[in-house]
């Protein structure tokens, strides 16, 4: 893609897509798009680690954040502690509710991004604000490697321990390739981590099938600012406590229209069978009850260490 003449090539990219989610106005999307090509920026504001001042082209910033201009600048605060490989911002989602987004580029081979990340987590991390950490990790580990990849790097264990101690848990889909080599071999190196408060508003993290012509797949993070409705589940009827005569009488009344349709030659047997199955299922569900679901949670928040 083309790039403005005064805009350097920067990698990776993290786009915050406001009001892009089709599910409703209370949802937003974050597009984590790690690439190694230039890109033309129009309706976006650029954020770089102001602590780093490049001295030449090879010393340019490697991590950045792009935010749509429709999000007012008064709602965005750039976080200190950034640099060449790391940048962070804080966005006001609602009054008294903010979200921090950190973007990290960890160069391959030397993995120089881990040191600034460790420094940031030591000096800048706060668990009182929802924080999402996105990264081009360039690291392989069995916890997120796609099937068939056995590569393991010791720096990956260091990353896991670092994130776990700071209260971050992996939110992105493990074992889903986000980068394909020239030989077509896929690896999962683009990761998304959330702390406890961020996990409450992250609705989903999906790897897009589109890569926008780049060498990385886009990772779409959908956040929901309003509390999600409580999960409910249906429980089996307590048969010993049910009045069988009353239940039998109600079922007979429900089956009466189906019995009458047996004489209708225009009604196919398949349609009658489907109506019968639905009637029996609905009747059985009415005898049970709906209770709040309690999804399984890991006993230890840091499930990878």
From TrEMBL:
Pfam families: Exo_endo_phos_2. One of its GO terms (molecular function) is catalytic activity. It comes from the Eukaryota. Residues 100-219 form the Endonuclease/exonuclease/phosphatase domain. This is Endonuclease/exonuclease/phosphatase domain-containing protein.
């Amino acid at each position: 893609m083309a790039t403005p003449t005064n805009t350097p090539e920067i990698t990776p990219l993290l786009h915050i897509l406001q009001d892009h989610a089709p599910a409703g106005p209370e949802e937003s999307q974050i597009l984590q798009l790690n690439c190694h090509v230039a890109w033309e920026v129009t309706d976006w504001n650029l954020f770089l680690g102001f602590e780093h001042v490049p001295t030449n082209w090879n010393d340019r910033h490697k991590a950045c954040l792009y935010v749509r201009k429709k999000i007012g600048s008064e709602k965005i605060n750039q976080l200190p502690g950034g640099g060449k490989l790391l940048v962070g911002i804080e966005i006001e989602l609602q009054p008294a509710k903010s979200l921090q987004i950190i973007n990290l580029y960890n160069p391959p081979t030397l993995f120089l991004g881990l040191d600034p990340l460790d420094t940031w987590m030591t000096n800048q991390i706060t668990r009182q604000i929802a924080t999402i950490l996105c990264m081009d990790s360039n690291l392989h580990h069995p916890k997120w490697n796609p099937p068939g990849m056995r590569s393991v790097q010791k720096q990956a264990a260091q990353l896991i321990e670092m994130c776990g101690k700071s209260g971050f848990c992996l939110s992105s889909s493990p074992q889903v390739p986000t980068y394909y080599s020239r030989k077509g071999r896929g690896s999962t190196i683009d990761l998304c981590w959330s702390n406890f408060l961020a996990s409450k508003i992250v609705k989903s993290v999906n790897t897009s099938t589109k890569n926008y012509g780049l060498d990385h797949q886009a990772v779409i993070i959908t956040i929901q600012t309003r509390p999600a409705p409580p999960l409910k589940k249906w429980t089996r009827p307590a048969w010993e406590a049910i009045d069988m005569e009353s239940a039998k009488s109600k079922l007979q009344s429900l089956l009466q229209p189906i019995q009458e349709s047996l004489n209708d030659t225009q009604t196919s047997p398949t349609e009658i069978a489907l109506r019968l199955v639905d009637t029996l299922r609905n009747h059985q569900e009415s005898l049970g009850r709906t209770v709040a679901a309690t999804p399984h949670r890991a006993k230890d928040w840091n499930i990878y260490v």
